[in-house]
Amino acid sequence: MRTGVDGFQGQRLNQLRMAQNLTLAELGEQVGRSSSTVSAWEKGTQLPEAESFDRLCHVFHVSRMWFLKPVPPVVQESQRPYFFRSQASVHKQARERSQLYLAWLQEMSDFFQDAMDWPEVNVPMLDADDCRLISDEEIEDIARECREAWKLGSAPIPNVIQVMENAGIICTRATLGHVKMDGVSHVSVLDGRPYVLIAEDKANAIRNRFDAAHELGHVVLHSKIPAAQYAKKELYDLLEGQAHRFASAFLMPPESFAQEVVWPTLDNLLSLKSRWKVSVASMIVRCRDLSLLTEQLELRLWKGRSARKWTKGEPGDDALAFEQPKLMMRGAHLLVDSGIFERTELVHQIGLPPATIEMLCNLRPGYLIVQPDAGDNVVPLKLKCNTGRAGRSKQADVLPFQK
Predict the structure, then answer these.
(1) What is the reported pTM?
(2) Phi and psi dihedrals of 78, rounded to 5?
(3) Strand 170-174 to strand 194-199: parallel, antiparallel, or no bridges (unpaired)?
(4) Chain segment 90-111, per-residue pLDDT in tens
(5) Cβ proximity of 392 and 386 under 8 Å
(6) Which of 258, 275, 270 is closest to 313 using CA atoms?
(7) CB 273, CB 316: distance < 8 Å
(8) Which residues belong to any copy of the HTH cro/C1-type domain (predicted)?
């Protein structure tokens, strides 16, 4: 009978397998075990023996510590909802992967907070436990309250992600493998802090920016909504519409945006796109919300937009660079640059694959992979024998480079 590795956490194995979209059979083939054995490891009814344990570490590029570290119970809780945009059409695997990434982000954030202070959470949140009681007026008011709390005035917001991070929200961008997955947000009971993931699969920064404001809307409006209510399909459109309304009000405040819309034509709205950093489609909706156009004019704008073939992409979509989260990246750099951790030790302590840490912390690819120092591979030089030159030894001491 094989001896299993004591303390092995089957849920950690399940997390990694789901993140890499592997079936039980596929993973079993890579480690030389049956799918039923892998399933037993995940369920905790059987422990992998030392050889299989090492193979798992090799397959997933993780340290042994990762499989021995219990999953925090609060990361498993589901009392607070995860807000998935485009939930109705998103594949289950993409939702599970995004929720998993957020759970890992929370764990890394908690690890970082042992060594440094994050910005305090400063996010106005609506005290409502029933989304059906939230009015458009309340949404407009709390969007204005957010701008006031963060001293944004009424001008266009230069960088939405930076504003969110300054308010204590931990943000990340990740590839989820599904173009209809826009983002996910969650307020953690681990530290009472909002966490937001924006999908990298989107084609342009304008859309990504609105997605970030949309997830902020869920945090502000729906953090106290019970998970059971959010799970109701009949309320999904209402919740999404409210987050949309918040994003529009937050990005395009009525007192300033309305003044710049002299006449809502497609060309006029397009001329405002680079300043407000929102799509023409979003501006049409905002003009409707602010009663700046009639139903007939709105219909004409939508038809004109379709006739210009802007439904799959508008002019100027590629002119804006993607907004990048920087808080987790700065935290990782601080731990390394201050000498608290070497890069290899940081990876070991976190436990996740280096590429996953780099993605979630927005570190440059390869940052955590330590390359051999060039001085370690210097080709040795030897003096020729019988050079005929006096006073020269045939061997010389090599002075090491100072690292």
Answers:
(1) 0.85
(2) -130, 15
(3) parallel
(4) 567 777 888 889 999 999 999 9
(5) no
(6) 270
(7) yes
(8) 13-67
Average pLDDT over residues 195-207: 86
The percent helix, strand, coil of the chain (3-state, each to 5) is 50, 5, 45
What secondary structure does DSSP assign to 1-57, as a single string? Answer: -PPB-TT--HHHHHHHHHHTT--HHHHHHHHT--HHHHHHHHHTSS--BHHHHHHHH
Amino acid identity at 225: I
Report the pLDDT averaged over residues 322-341. Answer: 96
Lowest mean pLDDT segment, chosen from 129-133, 211-215, 216-220, 380-384: 380-384
Q: Phi and psi (nearest 5°) for 128? A: -135, 130
CA R_g for the chain = 27
% of the chain beyond a pLDDT of 90: 69
Residue 399 has pLDDT above 80, yes or no: no
CB atoms within 10 A of CB 10: 20
Q: Quote the pLDDT of residue 236.
A: 85
* Structure-token pair, residue 148: 């006031």
- Candidates 67, 82, 74; CA nearest to 16 is 67
**pLDDT tens string 73-93:** 655 445 555 666 555 555 677
Using N-to-C axis directions, what is the helix angle for 233-251 and 205-222, rounded to 10°?
Answer: 110
Percent of the chain residues topping a pLDDT of 70: 84
> What angle is formed at CA 49 by the lines to CA 43 and CA 54, rounded to 5 degrees?
100
Q: Rounded mean pLDDT of the chain?
A: 87
- List the strands of the sheet with 183-187, edge to edge: 83-84, 183-187, 194-199, 170-174
CA distances from 257 to 142, 162, 263, 290, 354 (A): 17, 21, 12, 10, 44
- Check residue 366 and report its DSSP letter: T
Q: How far apart are CA 159 and CA 238, in angstroms?
A: 27
Domain topology for 10-71: 434 Repressor (Amino-terminal Domain) (1.10.260)
For every residue of 308-333, DSSP letters joined together read TT-TT--TTTTSSPPP---HHHHHHH
Model pLDDT, residue 191: 84
- Which residues touch 51 (CB under 8 Å, ≥6 apart)? none
**In sequence order, what are the beta bridge partners of 172?**
197
The total of other beta-carbon atoms located within 10 Å of residue 200's CB is 13
